[in-house]
Amino acid sequence: MASVSVYNMEGQEVGTMELADAIFNVEIKENLVHQAVIQQLANNRQGTQKAKTRSEVSGGGRKPWRQKGTGHARQGSIRAAQWTGGGMVFAPVPRDYSFKMNKKEKQAALKSVLTSKVQENSFLVLDELKFDAPKTKDMKKVLDALKVEKALVIIGDDSSNAVLSARNLEGVATASPATINVYDLLKYKTIIATKSSVEKIEEVYA
């Protein structure tokens, strides 16, 4: 089993923690990681882009001049694509970009990223992360003690003060074990998780 150091909020090592091989020591499948990222980005697209074709642009119902004898090229409508104010050829229309991945594939991608973070020593475990009140400077002290500037902090559901304390820090985001995703795990160089959240991850994704 993979083993990582456990730190307190002052950045001092206070022990070690064994990580489940089924989640933190799996074969890294880059193709599934790539597919999971593309899926999340595609699912976030609004798909509301719209432009008008020549059939939707107002006007242009009359032929601008007769077919022959004027010296001009033949034209059927002043709303064809080559005219100013004309419709667009192959105009974009609202569409749904989302697509689905199998549940097992998504979990395999998530486990692959978690494994890579552990292998890169970018996965830090805290014994706890609790504040008496939401204060940004307190969260900043914890990050400074861990020598981390930008990170994704995974915390339990009962740590609302920690969530509020990290909200105004640039480059810092929070997540619960149930809401972590491949894109966010890759976006942040360092992942900080409390012991309770690691146990929850092992429980949810086992």
Can you characterise this structure?
A 6-stranded mixed β-sheet has the order 2-1-3-6-4-5. The chain has helices at 21-24, 30-44, 103-119, 136-145, 160-166, 182-187, 195-205, and strands at residues 2-7, 13-19, 123-126, 151-154, 172-175, 190-194. It is of the alpha/beta class and 206 residues long. The protein has 7 helices and 6 strands. The protein starts with a strand and ends with a helix. The chain is 34% helix and 15% strand.
Descriptors:
single chain; 206 residues; alpha/beta; 7 helices; 34% helix; elongated
Question: Strand count, sense and closure of the main sheet?
Answer: 6 strands, mixed
In percent, how much strand structure appears in the residues?
Answer: 5-15%
Structural class: alpha/beta
User: Overall 3D geometry?
Assistant: elongated
Oligomeric form? single chain
- Strand arrangement across the biggest beta sheet: 2-1-3-6-4-5
Distance between the termini: 14 Å
Roughly how many Å is the radius of gyration? 27 Å
| Integer average pLDDT | 93
H and E string: EEHHHEHEHEHEH
How much helix is in the residues? 25-40%
**How many helical stretches?**
7
Low-confidence stretches: none
Strand elements, count: 6
What is the compact description of this entry?
This protein has a 6-stranded mixed β-sheet with strand order 2-1-3-6-4-5. With 206 residues, it is an alpha/beta fold.
SSE layout and pairings?
Layout: E1 2-7, E2 13-19, H1 21-24, H2 30-44, H3 103-119, E3 123-126, H4 136-145, E4 151-154, H5 160-166, E5 172-175, H6 182-187, E6 190-194, H7 195-205
Parallel strand pairs: 1-3, 3-6, 4-5, 4-6
Antiparallel strand pairs: 1-2
